[in-house]
Amino acid sequence: MSKITRRKFLAASAAGGTAMMMAPTKKAFAAGSFEGFPDGMGVLVDLTRCVGCRTCEAACNLEQKLPAPAKPFDDFSVFDEIHHGQKRRTTDKAYTIVNRYEPKDADKPLYRKIQCNHCNEPACLTSCFVNAYKKTPEGAVIYDSHVCVGCRNCMIACPFHIPAYTYHSVLNPVIKKCIFCYDTRLKEGKPPACVESCPQQVMTFGKRKDLMKIAHDRITKNPGKYVDHVYGEKEVGGTGWFYLSNVPFEEAGFDVNLPKKPIIDNVKDFLAIVPIVLTVWPALFTGFHLLATKGKSHGHGDDHSHDEQEGH
Amino acid sequence: MKKLETFGIKPHDASLKTDGQQWSLMEKLLLGLTLDQYIGQAFRNKFNWILAIIFTIGIPVILYRFVFSLGAITHGSYDYPWGLFLGFGLFCMVPLSASGFMLGTTVEIFGRHDFEPIERLALLNGLLGYFFAVVYLLVDLGQPWRLAYPMVYSFGPAAVLFLVGWHVATYLSVQVMEVSTAFFEWIGFQRGYDFIRKGTIGLTVSGIILSTLHQGALGALFLYAPGKVHPLWYSSAFQWIHFFVSSIPAGLCMVICVSTIVIYTMKWRCDQKFIDNLDWITIALAKGAAMGLSTYLIIKLLAVAHDNEWAYITTGWGAWWLLEIIGFVVLPLVILSYGIHHKLVGLCRIGAFLTVAGIILNRLNTALIAFNWQLYQEIPHYLEFIVAITIFAIYVATYRFILARLPILYKFKAQADE
User: Fold this and answer.
1) So where are chain B's domains?
2) Pairwise CB contact (< 8 Å): A310 & B205
3) What range does the domain containing A119 cover?
4) B216/A273 touch (CB, cutoff 8 Å), yes or no
5) Average pLDDT value for residue range B369-394
6) Number of CB pairs, chain A paired with chain B, less than 8 A apart
7) H-type helices in B307-344, by residue range?
8) Under 8 Å CB-to-CB from B246, ≥6 apart: which residues?
9) Among A160, B24, B228, B231, which has the minimal tally of Cβ within 10 Å of its Cβ?
């Protein structure tokens, strides 16, 4: 009896072990806290300077060779567009858009440019199961459409609602989003098209850490002008693009409830249990099996094939 | 089939005919009937007509999706990238298919061989549920032909979906092996049967591991969207536990539901042992489900307390949440408990159907209804509903096709009775 038990045990553990190897054991975790590449570039956006001329939209359209929009870029009726009760958002045909907001105590409207914020630790990147996204040392979050399966998890994960999808493509639907003009400009150290085109110098291009100093300097040197907060300094672990505003950020349509930590931090608790389950479960349940069937004939075997009689 | 039985015709249920001859594959497929008899009964069955109508409308729509893109049958929403195909197809089908690993554990690991009459039904329920979850996924993916990329070509191991993908794929193969014993019996391949049976414990244990992780992982997927899912359905600490724990009553109740449907519509295929044992097994499964549900209820409340979200209860979302918890967790729990206590099989079955509905409601709430609660509500495109219903109909038809043939509900005999 004991002999059989031992052999059974070995067989079972071997089987359990094989099962373990079949399961993916390589759960590499994103590094503890990644603060962005030291020389990563960024853009400081000063919302107080924006007049809503949409030149940046036109520049982006040209640079990224996007199709002509339904309404021309000098048509300002787009600011009144409401879809599903929402203002405009980025689409597969427009990587950046400008929206108009009417803050409570301000005498004039406020304009805000929306595009990918190029997070330090992007949610899209960490949610992607084929690693299609990449944070480049220059600071851009880029995307490789050749490996994309089209699960659209990145669209679920992005806290800023940025990635869009070419749903109407049959054979090659892909994610479309701002890539910081990586291929054509950033790689060579040049600012993206939208920044260069802006007549109001709303945006300042430079190393993220230098820009952060400038942002805080502007707040201190102009007392009362700005809200004392740089949106994007800490939000979801810090973003490559960040904002200064003279009105509370929620009145300019920003989500002010975002966590300060990267989105992936939410998921780490779960990922941490993976190796535990993989290691402990086989032994635990094989043990249960041996205990539960102790003293009984090892009934699992041929119960189905030859009719009749049940061991127990 | 009932009508044929009155003429003394018995369905195929043994490896040898009464006269000791082998059955041919064709005869097996036709259930041992002649072609005329088979076609006759297929036409008499009204359910087949319903299926035919669904397929006539739905299959062209599925083809339409692959010819004219996903945007042609959905709203192509950027804010709701996951619609019904994942919201229902993946997030509901997977927990409802948790039955395989649970009954596998009961019978093979805990040695409760008295549950054997239902074991194969539970395993098949698991296999088909997962398989059709993948079918839903294939319809939903932008580039379904790249489905294997995360396995062989480009790895994103830090992503929860990577884990889900790997585990569902591995678990699907485990389940194919588990169910293959029935197939080997039916086809008459004894060596294959013996080979698989030897690895039963290993297969079952790996089933437990994979199930624990990916049932939880489906919940963990929503941890990527902390601001998007309404706080009452979101809990960074409990999300994966909620999904895992609720999959236990989900799987068990799904087996009760399926066995109920089977006993009322396919009784001809059940052997006496299945029929005799079903009542106490139903109550025993209900007991397991009730325990799972009560645990689930407690951790649901605990999660609200943990994040101190009681203030949300008084809002409209809170009312909706209370409806889910009271109507589809507490109520089935009460019904099941009463049914178990008084040994009322019918009541247990009602409770089981309610539980299944509750799990579907919970997953749809998390993935669609309470998703983007600060933005707007989106009702999926009507073609999306048609495709979802069609795939479900294919699932039901496949389920029935297999139940009618393989020794799932009956025990395969060496030789047919006179």
Assistant:
1) 45-415
2) no
3) 41-265
4) yes
5) 90
6) 270
7) 316-322, 331-341
8) B95, B292, B296, B359, B362
9) B24
Please tell me the distance from the alpha carbon of residue A282 to that of residue A87, in angstroms, as a whole number: 52
Select the residue of B79, B209, B216 nearest A23 (Cβ to Cβ): B209
Rounded to the nearest 5°, which phi and psi values hold at A175? Answer: -80, 140
**Gap from A216 CA to chain B (nearest CA, Å):** 27
DSSP structural state of residue B414: E
Distance separating alpha carbons of residues A256 and A248, to the nearest angstrom? 9
Tell whether the model's pLDDT for residue B167 goes beyond 80. Answer: yes
Would the CA dihedral through B362, B365, B367, B372 be positive or negative? negative
B388: nearest Cα among B147, B95, B83, B33? B83
**Does a structural domain hold residue A289?**
no
Read off the pLDDT of each residue in A290-307 and give the average, rounded to a whole number: 56
DSSP-H helix ranges across chain A: 2-22, 55-63, 123-127, 153-157, 193-197, 208-221, 264-292
pLDDT mean over B2-29: 69
List the structure tokens of A151. Answer: 């699960």
Query: Residue written as tokens 């635990």?
Result: A284
Task: Give me the CATH number covering residue A132.
Answer: 3.30.70.20
What per-residue confidence (pLDDT) applies to A230?
94
> Do the beta carbons of residue B221 and residue B161 sit within 8 Å?
yes
Kindly tell me if the per-residue pLDDT of A261 is higher than 70. yes
3.30.565.10, 2.60.40.10, 3.40.1180.10, 1.20.1630.10: which CATH number matches B45-415? 1.20.1630.10
Contact between A168 and B72 using a beta-carbon 8 Å cutoff:
yes
Core vs surface per residue B43-71: b (16+ CB within 10 A) or e: eeeeeeeebeebeeebeebbeebeeebbb
Q: Dump pLDDT digits (tens) for A124-152.
A: 999 999 989 999 999 999 999 999 999 99
- CA-wise closest residue to B76 among B319, B383, B293, B309: B383
What does the buried/exposed string (b/e) look like for B151-163 if buried means 16 or more CB atoms within 10 Å of the residue's CB? beebbbbbbbbbb
pLDDT of amino acid B177: 84
Nearest to A112 by CA among A69, A57, A156, A191: A57
Lowest mean pLDDT among B28-37, B59-68, B252-261, B395-404: B28-37
Residue of A nearest to B161 (CA): A129
Question: CA distances (Å), B183 to each of B180, B204, B402, B407, in order?
Answer: 5, 18, 9, 8
CB atoms within 10 A of CB A275: 12
Looking at the partner chain, which of B190, B223, B413 has a beta carbon nearest the beta carbon of A266? B223
Chain-wide mean pLDDT for chain B? 87
Of A90, A165, A306, the CB nearest to B142: A165
Tell me: pLDDT of A114 over 50: yes
Q: DSSP class of residue A94?
A: B
Contacts of A168 in chain B (CB under 8 A): 69, 71-72, 76
Residue A254 inside a domain? The answer is: yes
Task: Test B206 with A289 for CB contact under 8 angstroms.
Answer: no
Interface test with A, best of B205, B276, B309, B410 (most A CBs within 10 A): B205
Residue A298 resides in a domain: no
Q: What is the Cα–Cα distance from B119 to B14, expressed in whole angstroms?
A: 20
Quote the percentage of chain A above a pLDDT of 90: 56
Residue A292: inside a domain: no
The answer to whether A285 contacts B109, with C-beta atoms less than 8 Å apart, is yes
- Picking from A15, A128, A163, the nearest residue to B202 by CB comes out as A15
CA distance A249 to A227: 8
Residue A113 in 3-state DSSP? strand
SS3 category, A182: coil
